[in-house]
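Hypothesis: this fold can be encoded by more than one sequence.
Test: take the structure tokens below, design a sequence, compare later.
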């Protein structure tokens, strides 16, 4: 067996992997880079915390979970909670805001 000839092709440039963001804008206080995400893969827990308004969110995590995933889950959970609150408020208002009965036209009052 002989030696292989070296290829005349240039080696592909190494792709540098830019790290993903771990600090985000808060949904509630709107401060930039105030929300940080920490993932404990060993325990399977991810925590999100706003340093300004102290909003917190906790979720399950696995070996594929990234901080942006937790931030997206937080946004979805906040939207769902807001939608649920507005739906329950509408029901309460609609049921309690019935107009009083109009007086009868035939009445002599």
């Amino acid at each position: 067996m002989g030696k292989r000839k070296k290829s005349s092709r240039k080696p592909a440039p190494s792709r540098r992997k830019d790290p993903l963001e771990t600090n985000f804008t808060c949904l509630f206080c709107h401060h930039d880079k105030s929300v940080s995400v920490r993932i404990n893969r060993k325990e399977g827990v991810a925590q999100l915390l706003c340093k300004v308004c102290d909003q917190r969110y906790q979720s399950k995590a696995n070996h594929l979970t990234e901080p942006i995933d937790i931030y997206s889950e937080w946004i979805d959970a906040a939207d769902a909670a807001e939608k649920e609150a507005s739906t329950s408020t509408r029901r309460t208002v609609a049921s309690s805001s019935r107009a009083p009965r109009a007086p009868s036209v035939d009445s002599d009052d």
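The first strand starts at residue 23 and ends at 24. Strands lie at 23-24, 35-40, 45-50, 56-60.
Hypothesis status: open.
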